[in-house]
Amino acid sequence: MYLLDTNAIIDYLNNKLSSETNILMDNISIPQISIATRIELSILPNADEKQIEIINQYISYCTVFELTEDVVLKIIEIRKKYKIRDFDSIIAATALVHKLTLITSDKDFNNIRKLKIIAPNKL
Questions:
Q1: In sequence order, what are the residues at sequence separation of 6 or more whose Cβ sits closer than 8 angstroms to the Cβ of residue 5?
Q2: Closest CA to 8 of 24, 52, 61, 76
Q3: What are the two backbone dihedrals, phi and then psi, of residue 117, each rounded to the nearest 5 degrees?
Q4: Which DSSP state fits 30?
Q5: What is the pTM (predicted TM-score) of this model?
Q6: Which residue in 12, 34, 56, 100 has its CB near the most CB atoms, within 10 A?
Q7: Separation between Cα atoms, residue 111 and residue 52, nearest integer Å
Q8: Which phi and psi (to 5°) does residue 57 adopt?
Q9: Looking at domain 2-118, which of 1.20.1740.10, 3.30.750.24, 3.40.50.1010, 3.40.718.10 is its CATH number?
């Protein structure tokens, strides 16, 4: 099972992924995202109305993981240990707590122990 990072979704919706990654993304029956990804997708600075509509439609198909006590505790641990940004720590904690592989091209996640990552541009 996979957790999708914001950049993976944006690249997927803009057809910027490799054919192998597109196949992987196409075969995810119910996409899973963290609440942080939901927020990031909703506040994209340069998105026009059509892009916002496409993003909102995609989000409507997703399972969105909310903040639970377990996720919050993992966020605190990650922020103290790795000093990554708030949204990234939420995404990483969500993946770890729910035992999901994160699909992301963001290298900030690479140093987080036990976090399984698939880099879409490396498939």
A1: 37, 91, 102, 103, 104, 105, 106, 109
A2: 24
A3: -130, 140
A4: S
A5: 0.94
A6: 34
A7: 32
A8: -65, -45
A9: 3.40.50.1010
